[in-house]
Amino acid sequence: MFFRYAPLMVPHPITTTRIGPITRAPPDGQANLLDGVGTAAEFDLATKMAKLTTAVEPENAPLELTAHNVRGEPVTFAEAARGDYRPFHVGDRWGPPWSTTWFHVRGRVPVEWTGKSVVAVFDLGFQGHAGFTCEALAWRDGKPWGGVDPNHRWLPVGSSEVDFYLEASAIPTAVVAGPAEAPSMIALRESKDPVFVFRQAELRIQDPSARKQALDFKVLYELALALPEGDRRAEILEALNRFASRKDHEDLKGVLSRPSMSTHHITAVGHAHIDTAWLWPLRETRRKCARTFSTALALMDEYPDYRFACSQPAQYAWMRESYPTIFEGIQQKVAAGQWEPVGSMWVEADCNLPSGEALVRQFVHGKRFFMREFGVDTRDLWLPDVFGYPASLPQLIAESGGEFFLTQKLSWNDTNKPAHHTFMWEGIDGTAIFTHFPPADTYNGNFTAGEIVRSAEDFKDRESSSRSLYLYGWGDGGGGPEPDMIESAHRLRSIDGAPQVELGRAADFFARAKREAHNLTTWVGELYFELHRGTYTSQARTKRLNRRAEQALREAEIWSAAVGEGYPADVLDSTWKRLLINQFHDILPGSSIDWVYEDAERELEAVIEIAGHITTSAQSSLAGSGDNLTVFNVNSHARREVVEVDERPVLVSAPACGWASTTDLAPTHFEPVSVSGRVVENGLLRVMWDERGLLTSIWDKEIGREVLSAGAPGNALLLHDDNPKNWDAWDIDADYRKSFVQLAELARAKVEMEGPLRAAMRFTRNFGSSKLEQRMVLDAGSRVLRFETEVDWHEEHKFLKVAFPVSVRSSRATYEIQFGHVERSTHTNTSWDQARFEVCAHRWADLGEPGYGVALLNDCKYGYDIQGSVMRLSLLRAPTHPDPAADRGKHRFTYALMPHPGDFRDAGVIAAAEDLNHPLRVVRGGINTGEQRSLLEVDTPQVVVEAIKRAEDSDAVIVRLYEAWGGHCRARIRTSLPASRAFLCDLLERNRDEVEMRNGELEVELAPFKILTLKLVG
Ligand SMILES: [Zn+2]
After folding, report:
1. Which has the closest alpha carbon to 644: 903, 240, 454, 922?
2. At 173, is the secondary structure helix, strand, or coil?
3. What is the rounded distance in angstroms from the CA atom of residue 281 to the CA atom of residue 600?
4. What is the pLDDT of residue 28?
5. 275 C-alpha vs ligand 1 centroid, how far in Å?
6. How many angstroms separate the CA atoms of 558 and 769, rounded?
7. Rounded to an integer, what is the distance from CA 625 to the centroid of its chain?
8. How far does residue 388's CA lie from ligand 1's centre (Å)?
9. Phi, psi (degrees; rounded to nearest 5) at 457
């Protein structure tokens, strides 16, 4: 995502100033920059700077173009080179949206230019800056050569004959805000109208000394603007004015060479944030990477001190696959220390929504790639642009061998700005990670003196540290640093008025900063992002598919591990990566164009299908052939519950992480469920509703108390107006609550099942052009009241929530996060509480008072708010930007209310949420009646198994489990997997200690929320 649209980030006017070799005139408004500068500016410095810039490229000669347009998917260079090239002229239109035009560029350097520095300069019809408009990859001798974008417009010409190709992508400008709905990018793919006008293709001579003077002037001019009134500023202005009149370079050199007196050290790292998909689809990002990485490699040849940090192994993997020469170039530059792999995760993943195990796999696949391809063991988690960070992340960083965390995103908070830039971040388990927020509050720095000076001035932890990191280069859509930024860096290395600046590596910054820092503040708990709260809900189909894909992979792994032979390691590896890439921070959160969701839904469906095949094949191998029912349970607690076999309810049971043959079990030990009029009840709950289908009472028969608040209906469906001011798909504004209607009209009510094992009522509601059907289900012996919901959704700028006002009073509610849970206030005492008016949770949230509580479970939702005694879950949104039809159409989801005596831990809320998400699977097989096997049993419900899989590098079995209650415990684990030895490992499955194992049993101690990775060796 890009800071340009952020309401909080008002760029300093100087940020638009650039005097690169191809800028002809200062941008509009630049002359105003001089207002108030100096007391008697005898010369217009901005005009002077523009003249200097023009003097950099004094002469030009034309280039000849021919063009070949390719619609649809991109083609290889070899294919493109065989294309039908037609004459093309500067001034012609090109590029129907999302098509590719290959330009063959030919020309001859005039003989009188021999020995001069010559560049080919292009303007493809750029609209805006790098990353958000058309861009091209230059190919020379059949190989990628360099990126061409608004901020990298010239290519060096080394011979008299010019002959190369430009592969130009016609990327239309997406619309992320505005009164009219955004254009559909899927529809635009069909458009035949070219959208760009090719404005420039010519050879130019560069005058190096004129360029040097222009850059010196620019840096000093910007520094003067950044400094307060005083001697140093007056001295610089005087020198600039003197230079402007005398044209003596020495005037500039004098003020440039006075060294910095600052004690603050900035490590400046070149960077190009490339959103793996956002306002462009994955296939375009692959090409964006090729363009940006080519540019970075060329700059490294030109500037040996240039360092470039690059995250997201998935993008490197694309290069290895599609652009081998770029990948080789990267390998060489990594070895030379110029190219720095950072980040550790496979992509810069969203961290609110992926499951715990999915976050683990982000590290596993990311770090293993960097180690295998480059021999680099990254120590940082690099997520500058992600929308919030759960309190389990510090442990995941540490357990994967990392020690540093970087983001800047919380500088966007709408209510409370972060109080620190360098601090220790402590997670729910007590792990503390050295954390740095670059004080420039951007990952797209422009290397103006103003940004550098402010970066040091704004650094909030001066008393503890004298170092900060600065990320510069065009980003979001890629591009990266331009030569002028590196030139600025050289001039700002040590200059009076600015901090000390070095071009360096993030890893070196982190190591030095951690070593030198002292008395750092510790921040405990989640790094909640006070913005983009709609991303827990937008693009609900993708979120549901994501949850199901995570579940499907878990099942595929555990049952394949049970089979042992023929573990489909390669298929699981590639299928995991298909899931992981779709957890990127603009895909899963719902903030991308429609095309991205067309891809994401197809990919996630494929993941579910592939994993489903693996599970089916493993289960049929485990169950054998025959006609007996075999019940598979992936969860780590034994279960007895009602399932539907051939649409008939059957009570079955299965052991933890295992399977059992089953026949119908009679519900002897609990009362059956029954329906009578508008009442459904089992031995535990009596649920009543009115003629509108709204719940009027949930009576807890066991405890003898009413669950719902007096006078307020339960399962109230509320349709809010949802018109965020700034970021449509991203945000929910706090005032959405003021305007809503309750969906109280009932079109139809019907009893579908009357007991004794299962009762089900169907309620149908029509509203607007939409329709909502709910099947309310209560099983015998169960406290879980399920609402299986289907919605045909055709609203616009509406937000659907379900509310349960309950008779429970507590100032805190508990929400599941990955590998644990956190508490948040149910009131708005402080600005921090107020800002959390919508929060993220995984499968459950619970509101509890001593002795009693109510949990609200879900099978694919993430947005909650619990205020006072009202528990609400976010169901659907309908934004119009950047996807004009986001979320319209069919949806399916289930949520459930679980009133319970006692604390949520003892009451089994965690297990109930797992069960809702992982229904028992019943297959026909040949195992004998009464036979059963548990792969793994843990003797305490405090410990939950997250994954059972084969090791990445051997036939050993990996078991990942965690302490889920937040307390210390000792757990005895019994396994029937072939295992004679057991090792405790880190998340990357590297052995730490051996654990004593006897007869398939071992004992471990767990601290609160501790994650353990066990390796069982046969
Ligand atoms: Zn981003």
Report:
1. 922
2. coil
3. 10
4. 36
5. 5
6. 43
7. 44
8. 13
9. -65, -40
Question: Could you tell me the two tokens for 824?
Answer: 């948040």
Q: Which element (helix H / strand E) includes 546?
A: helix 540-563
Nearest to 795 by CA among 889, 894, 893: 889
The pLDDT of residue 31: 35
Task: Tell which residue, 625, 852, 838, has the closest CA to residue 737.
Answer: 838
b/e per residue 600-636 (b: at least 16 CB within 10 A) = bbebbeebbebbeebbebbbbbbbeeeebbbbbbbbb
Distance 590 CA to ligand 1 centre (A): 13
The CA 852 to ligand 1 mean position distance, Å, reads 43
**3-state class (DSSP) for residue 744:** coil
Going from the Cα of 178 to the center of ligand 1, the distance in angstroms, rounded, reads 21
pLDDT tens digits for 689-734? 999 999 999 999 999 999 999 989 999 999 999 999 999 999 999 9
- In 3D space, the residue among 511, 517, 343, 521 whose CA is nearest the CA of residue 443 turns out to be 343
Rounded distance, CA 434 to CA 749, Å? 57
Count how many Cα atoms sit within 13 Å of the Cα of residue 897 in the half-sphere of its side chain. Answer: 26
| First-to-final CA distance of the chain | 48
pTM above 0.70, yes or no: yes
What's the 3 CA to ligand 1 centre distance in angstroms? 10
What is the C-alpha separation between 252 and 586, in angstroms, rounded? 45
Q: How far is the CA of 570 from the centre of ligand 1 (A)?
A: 30
CA of 476 to the centre of ligand 1 (A): 6
Which residues are known to be catalytic?
A: 385
Supply the DSSP symbol for 33: G
Residues in a beta bridge with 721: 798
Three-state SS annotation for 225-285:
HHCCCCHHHHHHHHHHHHHHHHCCHHHHHHHHCCCCCCCCEEEEEEECCECCCCCCCHHHH
Which helix (H) or strand (E) element contains residue 580?
A: helix 569-581
- Taking only Cα atoms into account, the Rg of the chain, rounded to an integer number of angstroms, comes to 31
pLDDT score at 667? 61
Which residue in 394, 476, 487 sits closest to 448, CA to CA?
A: 487
What is the secondary structure of 817-864 as a DSSP string?
A: ETTEEEEEESS-SSHHHHH-SSEE-SSEEEEEETTEEEEEEESS--EE
Rounded distance from Cα 380 to ligand 1 centre (Å):
17
457 CA to centre of ligand 1 in angstroms? 26
pLDDT at 665: 65
943 forms beta bridges with: 963
Asked if 180 and 169 touch (Cβ cutoff 8 Å), the reply is: no
Cβ burial of 518 (10 Å; 0-12, 13-18, 19+) is exposed
What is the CA(802)–ligand 1 centre distance, in A?
31
Low-confidence ranges of the chain (pLDDT < 50): 1-40, 42
The closest of 779, 775, 710, 780 to 749, measured between CA atoms, is 775
196, 95 contact by CB (below 8 A): yes
Closest CA to 840 of 817, 808, 814: 817
Question: CB under 8 Å to 844, separation ≥6 — which residues?
Answer: 815, 816, 855, 856, 857, 858, 904, 909, 910, 912, 913
Give the model's pLDDT for residue 664: 64
The reported pLDDT for the residue numbered 6 is 30
Taking Cα atoms as reference points, which of 387, 168, 174 lies closest to residue 279?
Answer: 174
Count of residues making up the chain: 1018
Q: Judge whether 681 and 667 are in contact, CB under 8 Å.
A: no
Q: Rounded CA gap, 783 and 825, in Å? A: 26
Q: Are 532 and 589 in contact (CB under 8 A)?
A: yes
Q: Which two tokens stand for residue 546?
A: 């994501």
CA of residue 1 to ligand 1 center, whole Å: 4
The confidence score (pLDDT) of residue 930 equals: 80
Question: Can you name the residues that pair with 804 across neighbouring β-strands?
Answer: 871
